[in-house]
Design brief:
Blueprint (H helix, E strand, L loop, with lengths): L21 H31 L2 E4 L5 E4 L6 H15 L3 H11 L1 H17 L1 H7 L1 H15 L2 H12 L5 H30 L2 H21 L12 H10 L14 H5 L2 H30 L5 H31 L5 H26 L2 H14 L7 H8 L4 H26 L5 H25 L9 H31 L1
Antiparallel strand pairs: 1-2
Helix pairs in contact: 1-4, 1-8, 1-9, 1-12, 2-6, 2-17, 3-4, 3-7, 3-17, 4-6, 4-7, 4-9, 5-6, 7-17, 8-9, 8-13, 12-13, 12-16, 12-17, 12-18, 13-14, 13-15, 14-15, 14-18, 16-17
Amino acid sequence: MLLHSRMNDGIDAPLWMFWKRRRYIVVFMAFLGFFNVYSLRVNLSVAIVAMTENRTVHYDNGTVGYEQYFDWSSSLQGYVLSSFFYGYILTPFLGGFISNRFGGNYVFGVGIGTTAVLTLLTPLAAKAGVAVLLAVRIVEGIFEGVTFPCIHAVWSRWAPPGERSRMASIAFAGNYAGTVVAMPLSGILANAWGWESVFYVFGVIGCVWFCAWMFFVKTSPEVDKWISQREKEFILESLGRTEGEQDKVLHPWKGILTSVAVWALVVSHFSENWGFYTLLTQLPTFLKDAMHFELEKTGFVSAVPYLVMGILLFVSGYLADWCQLKGYLTTTQVRRYFNCGAFLAQTVFMIVGAFILEPGPTITCITIAVGLGAFAWSGFAVNHLDLSPKSAGVLMGISNTFATIPGIVSPIITGYITSNKSDEEWKTVFYIAAGIYLVGCVIYWFGASGELQPWSIEAQERREQEKQQSKPIESLAYSNKVSVEDEM
């Protein structure tokens, strides 16, 4: 029903005809951008299995032996997989800051485009030595670190408040679409044309997207030559902006850093990413070591949870906006119920899946846990825009900086825990993730807010406007008083 409804934006077209609305072209291109963000990030998780597995080699003298392309221990593999995040953690805050200055669309595009070029160089880096590979992955992380804060800067100019959840959720679904495609395709490419082909294919796709993004997506509706006048006016009016208005952003740092709602959001983002990055980097290895799947099959099975999550992201985004627009739930209630409900479900299914540890039931539990995490993205992931739209990029930069720590720590810890590749070791990995989900659930429940914060730039501007409006009234009252006294 939602897909066929018409919006109150003056455009006579159902929602599924997204090309009729310029802001949904931006959403579609952002979806493809995040597709590249995660396909470029996760391809190594599958490729590393092919790069380090024992392969049968037939020698010229008729004997058969086993060789590895790279003889890396599980702990060294953990460092290789986490190296991306050493760079990634450095730039989310910077990305939020510079996106307000130069335009989120430009920084978003350059971040992904540069990562794509570096991905093309990954095979050369790996053959040059593990130190060179680590350096390339770190630089990739530096450029990808700006992407999430920058897209919030884009939404702050393009997303009407009543459409924030769906626009952000649709774009973020690209993360999981990229994972769904990259994991099985990486396995197929590695088997058919060698592990190097994994990086060449996804690197080229990323470069093509970069060219399209820079051509089609503009900083704001005011400078987009293809947008209709009606849609432009609708977006500006809904955001309380006027054409030609320039944002002079002076972020209220004291208010941000002392806000309970901000820190609750940070903890929630950290908790979701711990479980997500643990599975993102380790699921193919887990399926091979504990579930005894073949390489090509691990790619397909690893993709299933993210396929479910990608589908449910569309559902959660629409459902969140619908609950708000119909007045069934306040913004704070939507963020709290969706986020904490997802975390509780993830806690339960991670524990059950680890306890059973059988291929069918465990993969089912992992799929449900990851899939229901889609509802958390209608909580913490768009909460930055509720608290202060003009500071949303910086807020995402802060939360994403802390949320990157799991990407660094989790693969390393998992590498050490699973050094013997035993079932009990893998159970410990899942129990840790479940515990962190539960902590995030409790803290977000009591600290979350979906309301514009008193310290926000927008709230300060409203108070200033009210003060300015009250001055003529006070002046008129004083004049009347003087006139009465003169007459007396």
